[in-house]
Write a structure and sequence with these properties.
The protein has about 260 residues and is α+β, with helices and mostly antiparallel strands. It has three domains: about 80 residues, no CATH class; about 50 residues, no CATH class; about 110 residues, Immunoglobulin-like. Helix content is about 25%, strand content about 35%.
Length: about 260
């Protein structure tokens, strides 16, 4: 074969002849269309007298071999594309730490749950805390709350505080676990109460036996860790408990609080 030279202006030269071979991607990868144009250029300028020491049959065999190799490369590129797509889609719902370069070369890190993944200008963007990041900007990925399991376990000794009490109602508040980043914003708090202490022994008992007072999932930040429980009977003793569900779906319970009406 003759000499082939590639240039960055989207053209290829073969034996001094310029062939228009526009690249389809930013990294200027050779496509099957580019390869066929090169082959056509070579066939047009082939020495059929075999002066280069080869033969026409050998050239034909070389073409077939090269086409097979090019087809294999294309299949590998396709497989790599599918693998990248599967990886991007698998990020949704996981906790990710991303890093971007700021002014003066400073590195800004942010941790949060991957809310969605989009394809923009042939590039995947993973959205963390409402902002899109390139896959190359993701530093690590993990199960939400995996690194903070000890902090969640401490909730069983965290009390529920009664901030005010009326004839038939109480208002309560509680502290959040000391988790990393903005993970606390994705914790779901559910409040239960009962007149039977045994109904509050575990998460399962609360969900099956206790009265569900509500959830603060959609509340504003200032109201996420407080709630008013009403329609309580005067003179009775109530047990109040809270279930915190981590972004990874694991449920933890707070220490049960006793309230005398």
């Amino acid at each position: 074969m003759g000499e082939v030279r590639f240039s960055t202006d989207g053209t290829t030269q073969y034996n001094g002849i310029t062939v228009n071979t526009p690249f389809e991607s930013e990294n200027q990868s050779l496509t099957m269309a580019d390869f066929l144009q090169l082959m056509i250029a070579e066939m047009k300028n082939q020495d059929f007298m075999g002066s280069d020491g080869g033969s026409q049959s050998n050239s034909a065999a070389n073409y077939i071999t090269q086409m097979a190799q090019m087809s294999t490369i294309q299949q590998m590129e396709q497989l790599a594309y599918y693998s990248k797509t599967n990886y991007a889609m698998s990020l949704v719902g996981k906790q990710a730490t991303v890093a971007t370069l700021g002014i003066g070369g400073s590195v800004k890190k942010e941790t949060g749950i991957v809310e969605k993944v989009t394809l923009d200008n042939n590039e995947y963007l993973a959205y963390v805390n409402g902002k899109g990041y390139k896959l190359s900007e993701i530093m690590n990925v993990g199960v939400p709350g995996a690194d903070d399991s000890d902090e969640y376990d401490k909730l069983k000794t965290n009390p529920v505080y009664v901030t005010s009490k009326g004839t038939d109602y109480i208002r309560i508040r509680w502290d959040a676990p000391k988790v990393t980043g903005d993970e606390e914003k994705n914790i779901v708090y559910q409040v239960y109460y009962s007149t039977e202490k045994t109904d509050m022994n575990s998460v399962e008992d609360m969900e099956k036996k206790a009265t569900y007072a509500g959830s603060t999932e959609k509340a504003d930040d200032s109201e996420r860790r407080s709630m008013e429980i009403d329609e309580l009977e005067p003179g009775k003793t109530y047990y109040v408990g809270i279930v915190a569900t981590s972004p990874g779906g694991v449920k933890y319970m707070y220490q049960t609080t006793q309230v005398k009406m």
